[in-house]
Design goal:
This protein has 299 residues and is α/β, with parallel strands linked by helices. It is built from twelve helices and eight strands. The protein has a six-stranded mixed β-sheet with strand order 3-2-7-6-5-4. A hairpin with a 2-residue loop joins strand 6 and strand 7. The radius of gyration is 20 Å and the shape is elongated.
Length: 299
């Protein structure tokens, strides 16, 4: 049945769409549109359903990506990807964890739509240049050129980080304990010298409009947010988002603030704080991700 084939490939299709769009909501829209197209086709005429569905989702995601470009240029303050709650096993797949990390998703935002599609399909999911050419309507030679250009761009801007793990979560827990005690020096000791804090409020809640850099400034910013955005009844939950250790701040049963932590060498190198309620409304469900069993480069 068409529905069974689509359901079987859904984790892979969602992962591709999300990495191309940086939005779980937009990825779900793409999957809905793709399913409608798939349901209109006789499955018996499709030799390789997964390859067919990947092509459909890629094309729909490219259309979406071009449509949202202007919307993101008008976004109020810093833009961060819509966070997705990830299962612990995502951290065991280094390529997958890095590809959905906040830092990598921000790098992917700087690529044009074709470059992003080619990089995601080839370097993350392991599709050949010929397979990608059939998906985006370009020649194989053109895809090779796009892949080379996109890879150079990404490698020049990528940040090292450690996927979610027990060790990484211990660093986060130490940071939150220091923050709760108000110890500035203890906070700074857990931060890398070039640490970056990015907040996304979307103009709907109070959030820093620009990235904050440096140990002292980030430490004081975090303490300020904790004073103004939390109460004695605020519940802090430890989990993983985008393959990174994260903390959820829940006020009166409502998720108010989500912070994903980028860690390298036992120090926090990046804090990604999402407060835009539009990006938090679906942040509770764990998203199953899948690379389809392909072998790719080792980061």
């Amino acid at each position: 049945m068409a529905e069974d084939a689509f359901t079987e490939q859904r984790p892979l299709l969602f992962t591709i769409a999300y990495e191309m769009l940086g939005s779980a909501a937009d990825a779900e829209d793409v999957l809905q549109e793709s399913y409608l197209r798939w349901s209109a086709v006789d499955p018996a005429t499709v030799g390789h359903p997964r390859a067919y569905l990947v092509r459909v989702v890629t094309r729909q995601a490219l259309n979406h990506l071009r449509a949202v470009k202007a919307r993101r240029e008008e976004y109020v303050g810093a833009w961060l990807p819509e966070p997705i709650r990830t299962a612990p096993d995502v951290g065991e797949d280094v390529v997958l964890a890095e590809s959905v990390s906040m830092a990598m998703m921000l790098v992917l935002e700087t690529l044009n739509p074709n470059e992003r599609a080619v990089f995601v399909l080839h370097d993350v999911f392991g599709y050949t240049h010929g397979e990608i050419a059939a998906s985006i309507g370009r020649t194989e030679v053109a895809v090779r050129q796009i892949a080379h250009r996109a890879r150079q761009h990404v490698h020049a801007r990528r940040r090292r980080f450690e996927p979610d793990s027990d060790a990484a979560r211990e660093v986060v827990q130490s940071f939150l304990r220091a923050a709760a005690s108000g110890e500035v020096q203890a906070l700074m000791d857990l931060l890398a010298p070039d640490v970056v804090q990015i907040s996304d409020g979307g103009g709907k809640v109070v959030a820093a409009r620009r990235p904050i850099t440096g140990r002292a400034d980030v430490a004081h910013f975090v303490l300020g947010v904790l004073r103004t955005a939390t109460t004695a009844t605020t519940r802090v939950e430890h989990t993983a988002y985008n393959g990174m250790p994260a903390a959820r701040f829940v006020n009166d049963g409502v998720l108010d603030w989500l912070v994903a932590f980028e860690i390298d060498g036992g120090r926090i190198t990046g804090l990604y704080g999402i407060r835009n309620p539009d990006k938090l409304h679906s942040a509770d469900a764990v998203r199953p991700l899948d690379r389809g069993g392909r072998q790719t480069w080792k980061p």
